[in-house]
Amino acid sequence: MRQRPQNLLAEAARDYRVYFVEEPEVAQGPPHFRVKTAQSGVTVLTPVCDATCDVLREQRLLVEELQSLLDPSPLVHWYFTPMALDFSRHLPCDLRIYDIMQEPLALGVDQAKFAELEAELLACSHLVFAEGQIQVAAKARSHRHVHWVPGGVDTSHFARARSRIEDPSDQAEIPAPRVGFGGVIDDRIDLDLIASSAKALPSIHFVMIGPIARTHPDPLPQAPNIHWLGRKTYDELPGYMANWQAAWMPFALNDATRAVRPSETLELLAAGLRVTSTAVADLVETYGKKGLVSIADAQTIVPTLKTMLGIQPEGWRQAVDKELARQSRKETWDAMHHLMQAQLKPVQG
């Protein structure tokens, strides 16, 4: 799945030279950046360091060297995680942005360290963006320029699923009706809900797409109508979605999902699929109350999924498309860029 950074930075590359510094990798040899230019024009830099090195120190030196080669102004530092402050806090910039991706529990990082660095980043940032409205409300107590900005969806890419696309080979033999999920399968997913839903609805086949990471200690539930198809490329996703009859987001309601991002929901809606989700706060506020997504729990999931496979309510598709237009990648970036330019005016003269 393509995440918020890829979507936004692809748009940003139309207005800026964009360098994206990834997590470091360990390999023999002198420290260096492995450089790759994405199709969008974003330059992706992966720090590569020897296992015997002080990785943080080498990251700092590599980023210092990079910045010394750049045009002096305007220079924007964009943080998707406060952990990056450890190797970049000393570098000057004209605009510092904190774009909140997820809470520390969902990221699996040291919570105390994360909180310390986040407080520092909030104190020195000029702008704070958040995809979740719950996050906006929480951070607004610490910063006066916190803005809700949706994740941005490549509507035209996923809208391909609204037309006929040949069924991928590993899905072609799965009977219909199919209810699909696309995203990371980890501790945010309610495995018990998947198992009980599949048992209660043996004629419905549940297609689960995405990498498996940080999942429960319990094994993934197995049943004739549960299909774990693994990771798929971004380009492959519309082909799978085009051959589903509905979609669901079976999130567990726990600390890891307290501020889960709803961006994958937009991809499913863009594909023309009716979506059922558990009551994750931001999903309820952003899509549930508007009638775009159906909200269910363990007691109501079975009848809700049955309803999702029925006839679309009148006006639902039009309401979805209106929301998608408001949250397209371009609209999202334009809104952010407007706020950035207002902050940069004094710098640009």
List keywords for this structure.
349 residues; four-stranded mixed sheet; 14 strands
Structure description:
- This protein has 349 residues and is an alpha/beta fold.
- It is built from 13 helices and 14 strands.
- The protein has helices at 4-12, 55-68, 104-107, 111-124, 133-139, 155-159, 191-200, 237-241, 263-270, 281-288, 301-308, 316-326, 329-348, and strands spanning 19-21, 25-26, 32-37, 43-49, 76-79, 95-100, 127-130, 146-148, 178-182, 205-209, 226-230, 246-249, 275-277, 294-295.
- The strands form three sheets. Strands 11-10-9-12-13-14 form a six-stranded parallel beta sheet, sandwiched between helices.
- A hairpin with a 5-residue loop joins β3 and β4 (43-49).
- It is globular.
- It starts with a helix and ends with a helix.
What's the topology here?
Layout: H1 4-12, E1 19-21, E2 25-26, E3 32-37, E4 43-49, H2 55-68, E5 76-79, E6 95-100, H3 104-107, H4 111-124, E7 127-130, H5 133-139, E8 146-148, H6 155-159, E9 178-182, H7 191-200, E10 205-209, E11 226-230, H8 237-241, E12 246-249, H9 263-270, E13 275-277, H10 281-288, E14 294-295, H11 301-308, H12 316-326, H13 329-348
Parallel strand pairs: 1-4, 2-4, 5-6, 6-7, 7-8, 9-10, 9-12, 10-11, 12-13, 13-14
Antiparallel strand pairs: 3-4
Quick overview of this protein structure:
With 349 residues, the chain is an alpha/beta fold. The chain contains 13 helices and 14 strands. It has helices at residues 4-12, 55-68, 104-107, 111-124, 133-139, 155-159, 191-200, 237-241, 263-270, 281-288, 301-308, 316-326, 329-348; strands spanning 19-21, 25-26, 32-37, 43-49, 76-79, 95-100, 127-130, 146-148, 178-182, 205-209, 226-230, 246-249, 275-277, 294-295.
